[in-house]
Amino acid sequence: MEGLPADTWPQAGAGNEPERHKPLPKKVVDHLREALEAERSRWFLWLPVVMACGIAGYFFLPVEPPLWAVAILAVAAIGGIMLLMRGRGGFFMALAVVFFTGFVIAKARVELAGPENMVVPAGYVEVKGWLEETTARPGGGTRMVVRPVIIDGLKPADIPKRLRLVWRGKQRPPLAGSFITIKAKFLPRRMPVWPGGYDAEFLAWFEGIGAQGFGVSAPQKIVPPTGLAMPKSLRFSAAIENLRKAIGMRILSALPGKPGALATALITGDRSGLDKELVGVLRSSGLAHLLAISGLHMALFAGGVFWIVRAILALNPMLAVTRPIKKYAALTAIGSGFFYLLISGMGVATQRAFIMISIMFIAVLVERPALTMRNVALAALVILLLRPESVMSVSFQMSFMAVVCLVGVYEWRAEVRARKMQEHTPGIFTSAWRYLAGLGLTTLVAGAATAPIAAYQFNRVAVFGVLANLAALPLVGALIMPMAVAALVLMPFGLETYPLWIMGQGLELVLAAASWVAGLGGAVRPLAAMPLAAPMVMAGGLLWLSLWQTRWRLVGLGVIAAGFLIVPSTRLPDVLAGADGKLIAIKTANGFLSLNTARSEKYTAERWLAKFGDTASLQKAAARKGIVCDRQGCSATLPSGAKIALVHSPAILDEECRSAQIVIVSFRMRGPCPSAKVLISRKDLKRAGMHAIYISRVDGKPRFEIKTAQGTNARRPWTAREKWFKRQEQPVLKAPQKKPAPTAKQPPLQVKI
Questions:
Q1: Which of 125, 329, 377, 407 could be disulfide-bonded to 310 (CB atoms 3.0-4.6 Å)?
Q2: Please, which pLDDT band fits residue 544 given cuts at 50, 70 and 90?
């Protein structure tokens, strides 16, 4: 921002007279108004940002707002839009209208989406329904999505829209679109393993998943009931699902091993063939983004088709001169992108990438610049209107932050080049250097843009990610994805073996580079949990720096610095209790985490260690001193002096309730616990999930603060507990027994002599 005029600053030695300072606020306001007016062409770019804030504001509410309150906001938003259309109101009024609009859109999405019912029967039940989707699990077995029609013990009106079941057996399930029967057992919904952490059930709720469990018998294909036809929407999705499976099998038959599994993940989105070691190497090297089909893959796939089609059409000079071959290529690229969307599983990230790439190719059709910040904003608006819940997903946040910052940087580079008036034609070495420099800059910018979100969500940073991407991305862009396009084109003719072999050679080089980078000392830097405000403030600074064009955008650097200052304010819990009542952890005097066991709730324990920035294994964390356990329970003394007890047996409950300040009971209990300042029962754990306890001292006395997995967001539709339905067996009615008719008494036997 330009400096203030000199006459607005107080003169040296003039003192602190109030009249000297009165004009300053007015001058500041006028200067801000002028700066804002100079950025009028960029106002539109802030609409998706403000709408996303409105959507996030709705999802962060602790209770569900009533419809009448949202209706008032909707009327206010409509009135504001009408005023803006008449030329009344200004920039800030437009932002308020967009904020309210995002809030209303999120509420409408919740009312229209969801599983309809979250009523599930207890025990083992038989489920009959349409098999919608099957996915092989990396550890063995199959994950299935079923549209239930009949569930034992439930009325048709109480059946959820979709079920997610896991079959751990070796027998393969039938093809998608089959009517199956399977005996299953349902499980309670999974809660976050950290207060305010990732909730796996949030997006599942919007997909219509009303219950989840596992199968205890192999899914069998049966004949559907008379008069029951397959839903029309399922026919198309089942056909696409079976096509995906067929493509994956063709890829693995032509390209076995790790390259084949990685090629299947890149083309069909099926990551079931990737082992744990391979995924760990990609994460440690900073190449894990290759596994998620998103903007990079869609741009390379559709962009490659655009380039190939345009090059082929340009071979005919007459066609190139008389016809708009560029538009023909753009239409073909949109169609190929849609096909790639279908065979890749239609994930949320892939849908978002397709919308963005389609808008860019539509810009080519209407003869506008393709990659502009306005097109990115338009794509974001479309996604927010269709899927407002995407705001809460990590993929949405990271992908758009990366794209916005990249476009902002390349706009700045184009402006600098325009000032220098560089018109000379570079040579081959200069072009190669520019390509590598541009690739390095892209990797640096994308990594910096997504680093705050990645650090908050995953608690780790790949230190040498730039090095791995410099080695891998040229192979992905120039060799791997073009061969993927060629393999899909030649697959109907049975000629996919040759391009897949070339693709496999490129993937081998990528895996070699990933293994080398992951093996470097300090390749992964663990990070402890940080407050949510830190990544939010940093993201706001990055957006301010990228979306504005004049010099006042440099204020964003100060905002980013403020976000870094918030990071050290992290406060880690002193005690953690798992949702099953078997796992506890305490913070030791040196800040590490000590577990009571390494065999219960392994995923939860791993995430706890990650949140503490602790790289120890579960076995090492369980071997640390601090917690003493036996069959009846566990006990520990915290660095603050407070005693904690985990009670498994009623026999020691009275003893622990006379000495421990924190008592966690894994069974149903009745009666008081005199010494307990914090008493967590089995009922509390089942209702609110894991508990985190923070201990501080106020006036020399310990103060205990509790946060749970459910948190304050417990009274929302997607966090509501399932209504368990206990089946009642029909009593067997016995026919009443008739009493025998009374018989006349026989006279005593008389014997005559």
A1: 329
A2: very high
138-156: b (≥16 Cβ within 10 Å) or e: eeebbbbbbbbeebebbee
SS (H, E, C) 57-96: HHHCCCECCCHHHHHHHHHHHHHHHHHHHCCCCCHHHHHH
Cα 417 → chain centroid: 38
Q: What is the rounded distance in angstroms from the CA atom of residue 638 to the CA atom of residue 584?
A: 13
Give CA separation, 385 vs 108, 342, 380, 731, in Å.
Answer: 10, 21, 9, 53
Residues 6+ apart with CB under 8 A from 208: 113, 114, 115, 116, 160, 161, 162
How confident is the model over 11-35, as pLDDT tens digits?
Answer: 444 444 444 444 446 677 777 788 8
Mean pLDDT for the chain?
85
Judged by average pLDDT, the poorest of 293-297, 677-681, 703-707 is 293-297
User: Is residue 51 within 8 Å of residue 102, measured between CB atoms?
Assistant: yes
Tell me the per-residue pLDDT of 674-701, one tens digit each, with 9 for 90 and over: 889 999 999 889 888 899 999 988 877 8
What was the pLDDT predicted at 421?
58
187, β-bridge pairs: 212
Alpha-carbon torsion (7, 8, 11, 17), positive or negative: positive
Q: How many CB atoms lie within 10 A of CB 564?
A: 13
Which residues contact residue 592 at a Cβ distance below 8 angstroms, ignoring those fewer than 6 apart?
612, 614, 616, 621, 624
pLDDT value for 115: 83
**d(Cα 358, Cα 360) in Å, to the nearest integer?**
5
Residue 633, helix vs strand vs coil: strand
Q: What is the rounded (10 degree) CA torsion for 335, 340, 343, 347? A: -110
Query: Per-residue pLDDT for 438 more than 80?
Result: no
Helix (H, G, I), strand (E, B) or coil at 555: helix
Q: Which residue type does 240 have?
A: I
Residue 723, pLDDT > 70, answer yes
637 pairs with which residues across the strands? 643
Tell me how far apart the alpha carbons of residues 476 and 507 are, in angstroms, rounded to a whole number: 8
Between CA 490 and CA 307 the distance in angstroms is 18
CA 393 to CA 18: how far, in whole Å? 51
What is the predicted pLDDT for the residue at 128? Answer: 94
Q: Tell me if 291 sits within 8 A of 274, measured CB to CB.
A: yes
CA angle 377, 378, 383 (to 5 degrees): 95
